[in-house]
Amino acid sequence: YTPQSNWGQSLEFNPEVQDMLGPQTSFAEVAEAMGSLIKAGKIRSWGMCNDNAYGLAASVYTSRALGVPPPCVLQNDYSLLNRRIEENGVSEASSPAMENTGFMAYNVLAGGVLTGKYLKEPAAIDSFQAGKKEAALRRFREPRGRMDENG
């Protein structure tokens, strides 16, 4: 098991890659370690990052079986460009009806791609902002509605 190990790759099993991964940490070992940290008062709760629905479910079930608080949050890459969690079952697995685990997105602006950081020429000024200063000042000078007068 490797979380999100097949990003854009073949889903075919490759034993050479499996051997390169080295020893794996079991779900029970992680849950026991987190449980001991919670018991010692060093952490309040724990979460997971870059995992999939299988990893989330296995961690929750193993934690419950060991009497340890399950993970409270899953953090994954999510943006307008990367909506993989909508396809791989993470959103369903973390829902209140299933594991009731929170979801935290990272890289929501796709590393600057969605902000225009990598454009050769600067992006156009937002039409929402262009020329709005005078209109905003007019609203203050000429109020209307419940407060028809200044003061």
Automatic annotation (TrEMBL):
UniProt superkingdom: Eukaryota
Gene3D superfamilies to which the protein is assigned, alphabetical: NADP-dependent oxidoreductase domain
Pfam families recorded: Aldo_ket_red (PF00248)
Keyword Transport: no
InterPro entries (UniProt xref): AKR_Detox_Biosynth, NAD(P)_OxRdtase_dom_sf, NADP_OxRdtase_dom
Gene Ontology molecular functions: oxidoreductase activity
Domain NADP-dependent oxidoreductase: 23-126
Alphabetic keyword roster: Oxidoreductase
N-terminal signal peptide: none
PANTHER family linked: NAD(P)-LINKED OXIDOREDUCTASE SUPERFAMILY PROTEIN, NADH-SPECIFIC METHYLGLYOXAL REDUCTASE-RELATED
The protein's name: NADP-dependent oxidoreductase domain-containing protein
Species whose genome carries this gene: Phaeocystis antarctica
